[in-house]
Design brief:
- The chain is α/β, with parallel strands linked by helices.
- It is built from 16 helices and 16 strands.
- The protein has helices at residues 15-18, 31-38, 59-67, 71-79, 85-91, 113-127, 150-161, 178-181, 190-204, 220-225, 257-265, 292-303, 324-333, 401-404, 436-439, 444-466; strands spanning 142-146, 165-169, 207-209, 231-234, 240-241, 254-256, 284-288, 308-313, 336-339, 341-348, 354-367, 373-377, 383-386, 389-392, 396-397, 431-433.
- The chain has a 5-stranded parallel β-sheet with strand order 3-2-1-4-16.
- α13 (324-333) links the parallel β8 (308-313) and β9.
- The longest helix has 23 residues, at 444-466.
Length: 467
Amino acid sequence: MSLSLKKHSMPEQDPKVRAKNFDEVALGYSEETAVAEAERCLNCKVPQCRKGCPVQIDIPAFITKIKDRDFEGAISKLKEANSLPAVCGRVCPQESQCEKYCILAKRGESVAIGRLERFAADRSLEKGEAVQPIAYAADAQKVAIIGSGPAGLSAAGELAKMGYKVTIFEALHTAGGVLSYGIPEFRLPKDKIVQVEIDNLKKLGVTIEVNAVAGKLFTVDELMTEEGFGAVFIATGAGLPSFMDIPGENLNGVYSANEFLTRCNLMKAYQFPVHATPIRIGENVAVVGGGNVAMDAARTSLRLGAENVYIVYRRGEEELPARLEEIHHAKEEGIQFRLLNNPVAVLGDDQGWVKALRCIKMELGEPDGSGRRRPLPVEGSEFELTVDTVIVAIGQGPNPLVQSTTPGMETNKRGNIVADEETGATTKPGVFAGGDIVTGAATVILAMGAGKKAAVAIDRYLQEKRA
């Protein structure tokens, strides 16, 4: 039998149907498809794919288990390195990480590592995973984690397994961070995936305190001096939205993508009228930006009833930073791409509501510091796009609350915490940080990798302190 140079395709909902619902778009591999895809793996002696994995999963080993139909062995192998495989199988950019290095990619398409990870994780979740609570020592040390996103959850799981009593402090009313408030239901189901993973952590013995705003209710110093935590890991993410700084951004009907997606995901606007969430979508929506968050906001707008949804992006299609899969799905669903256009003003009516977005056409010049060609305005090319909602998705930065209330902890000019890349150690003894609060907005798996490294470093720090 000759080796197929193409991945087995992932079954998906029909675009016309899914554009009207919040059910998951990708439906997952069947057992037979998963085994057939696993058989494409060459099981290389020096597996290059592992180079691209921030948490160093033994990729050939878990794929071999699937090939042998040892599905329990596959999930066990995955969980040795990755505490959230069902999440990563869905939202990781495998094409620029593990799959990028797959030897098969030199001749055709890589092995579908992400789809196989999802298959193994989903099969385990469907069967119901037995989680053994940890028997903590009487003198077990306490570790505090601020933030319950991917970095915080990853660190919590690792530290709990090492025997530390872990408490996660989450500012919002639901744990999960960006997994809960940022990524839409149709890409990452909350009850089926995210909540199960959080419940599994609780079964291990991790305590999660919600509505606990660090920097307001308590400081990092108070956790260590008054509450008895031996170390603190800060994983507060990048939740402060950026705006365009153009006229009209304060009009009614202008949202940051953070606010828009939080209202939809966390406040369940997608279940209106069961949940009467304050969110207004008109007939025509402009989403400014070209990343995954922009695609999420655009596709969510469509599902909330918008008739026309535009992606307005100042560069061309080749420069779009979103995953190819997300762009492909958006196009299939009818999202309209207005590329090489840059907003210069939001226009409003006499009631203070958005009525149009004024844009100028752009052309690409020489590459800038990012390596992408610099967009330059075309003189005299301004035009108006009739819209009643504008969603700004041009990036986000660090919320300064924890940093501003933690003396002795260095931050950089962008407000991110300065931390050692390998250990997460900050300039303040006993305080560690990782994920987007250190790197700026990045991927789920990179944040998880940071949480994992920090857990090892925290263990070393506390053991040395105790010795």
